[in-house]
Amino acid sequence: MKKTNQNDTIIAPLTPSVGGSVSLLRISGPKAVSFAEKVFSKKNISQREGGRFFFGNLQDEQGKLIDEVVLLFFKAPNSYTGEDIIEINSHANPFVVDTIFQLFLRLGCRPAEPGEFSKRAFLNGKMDLVQAEAVADLIAAKSQTGVQNSLFHLKGKLSEKIIKIKEKIIQITSFLELDLDFSEEEIDIISAQKASALIDETEQEIAQLLTTYEHGKIITRGIDVLITGRPNVGKSSLMNALLGENRVIVSDTPGTTRDIIHEQTLIQNTQVRFLDSAGIHLTDNSIEAEGIGRAREFFVKADIILLVLDISEEIQREDENLIKLLSGSYKEKTILTVNKTDKTETKQLEKRIKNKLSNTVFVSAKTQENIDLLKEQIIRLASGTQPEKADEILITNQRQFNYLSLTKKALQKAKQSLEQGVGFEFVSLDMRAATNYLSEITGEITTDDLLNNLFSNFCIGK
Ligand SMILES: Nc1nc2c(ncn2[C@@H]2O[C@H](COP(=O)(O)OP(=O)(O)OP(=O)(O)O)[C@@H](O)[C@H]2O)c(=O)[nH]1
Ligand SMILES: [Mg+2]
Predict the structure, then answer these.
(1) How far, in Å, CA of 173 to CA of 177, rounded?
(2) What is the per-residue pLDDT for 247?
(3) What domains appear along the chain, each with residue ranges and CATH number?
């Protein structure tokens, strides 16, 4: 996001440009009302109370009728952005919407940058950063639980939790600093042991929040599942079986799938996106070769990898190489999916395969055997630790996760110092660092770069 002037009056559509029957445009800033009064048939809006709606005609500068509209007025500071806001509900015809948009640009509005309404809301103290992120999460949530969790964040529940933890840390720090002040008089305010125990308590609270990230991530963003394996093992057939429809072409000619094909579905109320890829030839020489560079990119990005084997054939060198590759850094997220169980007596092979990877499922894409079990495994593996209570607050993004991890590290360092008998003045520095990291989560401490980066990922009109 460019550095933008906060005094500009900005405009953006809140609804998609095509489809629907009503369209909504939002205008926010000091001149929103005066611009509207110039072209709306009802005047003196500024003298009315905020939170009202008005029905009337919208006309251009020459008095030509553009549309019959409903106009909403929110008076500063009681609006989303904290500024005067006018919202125009017009008919959803794209010509009408564009004519209104152009009219307001001529009157002096500037098109809003992505996320600019929310950025103004943050800068005007209407919400903190966690709440602003919750707005974007709520719109994009990929499950009902994701919606619920975003609402918790929006209502400030995560922020409250973080502020409470921060207050505890500040209190311990003030004990430590007070103790330093009184050290001459040999009055003990707090012992190192007591301080260490209190820090440990807060560290546990942060550790608990950190464990919610995996689950928080998937309910907000969904799960990406990559289906991989050598040619002809039944990757595309498996994708169809998991989707419950014949989406991908299947044939007995190896090399049928060429490009990555993705399709999504809901499993246990969670959005799952399957990616079917071309079969990988992984010969001994090619493990490090350029050829699998692209595949590796997908290995990194995927939340779960299904490595498909064909049990009706002997395990081949290519299978072995893929198993070797994936049992390295991708082990935790790989499920060895042994396919075509309908074709052979599997007992012998089962034994050989059993210990190759800890997560193994035997399936038949053809008869659908164990496909439901595979779905369960996918969700279980991606979810990490499940929340204990349904209404538990989950953290949902990398930024929150990183700052909480930094806070935890700073507390651990403080605790270590106390155990080693380091002076309270040094311990207090780590405690203050911990407080600052928490302030960055809610946005009490922030930089222009961070704000620009965060809000530019929002959609236009939010
Ligand atoms: N009997 C049996 N045949 C299967 C099963 N799954 C796939 N096949 C057959 O195996 C052959 C290959 O299936 P595909 O799904 O095209 O395999 P693929 O791994 O996507 O192949 P490429 O795209 O060429 O890499 C087809 O003839 C399928 O009908 C299964 O569970 N049982
Ligand atoms: Mg295929």
Answers:
(1) 6
(2) 80
(3) 10-127 (3.30.1360.120), 134-212+394-443 (1.20.120.430), 219-383 (3.40.50.300)
